[in-house]
TrEMBL record:
Gene3D superfamilies: Alkaline Phosphatase, subunit A (3.40.720.10)
Species the sequence originates in: Macrostomum lignano
Name assigned to this protein: alkaline phosphatase
Cofactor remark: Binds 2 Zn(2+) ions. Binds 1 Mg(2+) ion.
Residues the record lists as binding Mg(2+): D78, H190, T192, E356
Cofactors (names): Zn(2+); Mg(2+)
UniProt GO molecular function: alkaline phosphatase activity; metal ion binding
SUPFAM superfamilies: Alkaline phosphatase-like
Length: 576
């Protein structure tokens, strides 16, 4: 790698960033803030904050964490776009009685960030099956495919054979002797988790009841069957979807719905939960199965080597609904992550844990903005929990989304405008009797909106939200045009990274590149003979940054700080 000298563009960029008008915008409305600006936010405070960030960037750039990772914790927020992160950050701050914009989510403290391009082989706007396959295997595929390459036609078993399988870094980590865990708030057979262990022409083939008539079940087994056959040696499996593992002749309890009885879905008469139990018994293992919160709580990480937890008949509940139900609680994402790491970390060879915060996506699909943000905040808590249970020196931790959503934050809201509310400020001085901003149609509008989804009116003017309770759990935020199921967004998604090899995520990448970074860091996978030949000495590194508030000193910006910005903030690095 060679260093090129600072360019004129870099100098100009540095000088622009050091100008004092950080908060000004020629197009922004000139109104008094909706929320009192914190007293410490003086002009000099912003200078000090910039200087502190710059010093931190210098330290990070000169101390890139090289070497390989013993452990992996991979968080995938399904549908976690930049907008979802920003709105979640603001909501977190507002729940703490702050304006919100200045808040920070746990993973926003990670030293590396990149962007991932989410298109797949045949779609501009991808689905979770193709994106999870790309992330896990390092190879892009067709929309709706699970763990197979682009030569397989979606829904067509005749185009599939095992030579077209794509294997995830989780598969390779297990082969390398690491303990492996999979945690999700969706059905464990849903698209994202399935891509870690299954190979199927269709993400919809979750149980044999979903297979089209005439499908060769030996050639194309359903995804639940594949979990038991392909992941029986995985140490931790937590999620939902219990009915996909039970035959129609058997029933199970839906604990979240007044302990009602629900029949299984399998048509082959096989109880896959019993099959999993029998496999563990045959290998003389210490194992546990759990389907309720009390059973989950009873699992002792010190004395359990293998565990299957199916905590819902379908998806686990939204975090907000789980918090509000006084009668029954499902394990939360952060609780499942905590227990998983405590079990997995007992392996001296290390572990790999894949975690999906899957219901962010589902809430967006139904235009449930509040539910989506509460699931973002639960992801934030889960990452915090993982940071406290691992060592950054030997653990690669990543947080990313698989795709975006057509979800926006806007409307010229003043600082502190409630993120779940209507816009208060009007840059054109148009207000209703409540003092809320109104559009040209005389009706108010919300901060959060969707381009499409079920909340949109059909053939009539948009809904009048003057008296709507936009903070209600079931409030559906406005959409432009009606669609049964709000669509995904096609823009790039962020990738946040910390730990060994995290520095390799540094630019705009193909989403499939993420899988290569993980396999390089763990020294596993089909390219291991190449990747592992490039041995890197480990870098001494401190603990995870915890997002401590920056000093509020009034000391001035020094010439050395300016030079530091020029020297480190805008130097161009290229690979020779």
């Amino acid at each position: 790698m060679t260093r090129r000298p600072l360019t004129a563009v870099g100098i100009a960029a540095a000088l622009v960033l050091l100008l004092p008008n950080i908060c000004d915008s020629a197009m922004a409305p000139k109104s008094e803030s909706h929320f009192p600006v914190p007293s410490y936010e003086s002009p000099q405070w912003w200078v000090n904050r910039g200087r502190a960030d710059l010093l931190a960037a210098k330290a990070a750039a000169s101390n890139l964490q090289r070497g390989r990772a013993k452990n992996l914790v991979f968080f995938l927020g399904d549908g976690l776009s930049l907008t979802s992160t920003m709105a979640g950050r603001v909501y977190k701050g507002q729940l703490q009685n702050r304006s919100g914009e200045e808040a920070q989510l746990s993973y926003e403290t990670f030293p590396q960030i990149a962007l991932a391009k989410t298109y797949d082989c045949d779609f501009q706007t991808s689905d979770s099956g193709a994106t999870a396959t790309a992330i896990g295997s390092g190879v892009k595929t067709n929309d709706g495919n699970i763990g197979v390459n682009q030569d397989v036609i979606r829904g067509n078993c005749t185009t599939y054979d095992p030579s077209k399988n794509l294997y995830s870094f989780m598969h390779y980590a297990q082969l390398a002797g690491k303990s492996v865990g999979l945690v999700t708030t969706t059905r464990i057979t849903h698209a994202t988790p399935a891509a870690m262990y299954a190979h199927s022409p269709s993400r919809s083939w979750e149980s044999d009841a979903n297979l089209p008539a005439g499908t060769d079940k030996t050639k194309c087994p359903d995804i639940a069957t594949q979990l038991v056959s392909n992941a029986a040696d995985w140490n931790v499996i937590f999620g939902g979807g219990r009915t996909n593992f039970l035959p129609t002749a058997e029933s199970t309890i839906d604990y979240s719905n007044k302990n009602s009885s629900v029949s299984g879905k399998r048509q082959d008469g096989v109880n896959l939960i019993n099959r999993w139990r029998n496999l563990q018994s045959s290998k003389m293992r210490r194992f546990a199965f759990a389907e309720s919160k009390s059973q989950f709580d009873a699992i002792d990480p010190a004395n359990t080597d293998y565990v299957l937890g199916l905590f819902a008949t379908s998806h686990l509940r939204y975090q907000l609904d789980n918090e509000m139900d006084p009668t029954y609680q499902e394990p939360s994402l952060s609780e499942m992550v905590d227990k998983a790491i405590r079990i997995l970390s007992r392996n001296p060879n290390g572990f790999a844990l894949f975690v999906e915060a899957g219901r962010i996506d589902h809430a967006h699909h139904d235009n449930y903005g509040k539910r989506a943000l509460h699931d973002v905040l639960e992801l934030d808590r889960a990452v915090t929990r993982a940071m406290g249970l691992t060592n950054r020196a030997d653990t690669l931790m990543l947080v990313t989304g698989d795709h975006s959503h057509v979800f926006t934050v806007g409307g010229w809201g003043l600082r502190g405008n409630p993120i779940l509310g209507r816009v208060v400020n009007s840059d054109e001085d148009r207000y209703n009797s409540k003092g809320e901003a109104v559009a040209y149609d005389g009706m108010p509008y919300t901060v959060l909106n969707y381009a499409d989804g079920p909340s949109a009116a059909i053939g009539t003017p948009r809904k009048n939200l003057t008296d709507a309770n936009t903070t209600a759990v079931n409030f559906q935020f406005p959409a432009l045009y009606n669609y049964d199921y709000e669509s995904h967004g096609a823009e790039d998604v962020p990738v946040y990274a910390a730990g060994p090899s995290a520095y390799l995520l540094h630019s705009t990448h193909e989403q499939s590149y993420i899988g290569h970074v993980v396999m390089y860091a763990l020294c596993v996978g089909p390219e291991a003979s190449v990747y592992c030949a490039d041995e890197e000495a480990p870098t001494t590194i401190g603990p995870y940054m915890t997002g401590q508030p920056l000093p509020r000193s009034a000391s001035g910006l020094t010439a050395s700080s300016v030079l530091l910005a020029l020297a480190y903030g805008f130097r161009i690095w290229v690979e020779s």
